[in-house]
Write a structure and sequence with these properties.
The chain is built from 4 helices and no strands. It is mainly α.
Amino acid sequence: MSASTRRAVLSLYMRVFRVARSWSAQSGVNTDSQTERKYIIQEARTLFRQNQQLTDEASIKRCIEECEARIEIGLHYKNPYPRATYLPPLGLATQKGRKLRAQQRLRKQAKPVYLQSHDET
């Protein structure tokens, strides 16, 4: 990892913690704010540790873009939790084989940038 990439990652990590420190829930209830702050911190630690071993510049850049998108979406909607993804048309294949593989490929393509690090549910 180059020095500029390392600086960008550390800056982003600190930005997430600054956002968490100043976060207030949309409902205005103090316990909701505390719960959402804990979620932001826990999610950041988990994802940064999960991606700690990345060395490829392209994958690091993709993770940085995902983190920036999640920060901006969270601030805009006042919701720290990931937004729901919607299945493409005919997204529930009941058959096995070729149709199922095609639907899995469509689901992967339909996944937005801010949810790339989350597993399928």
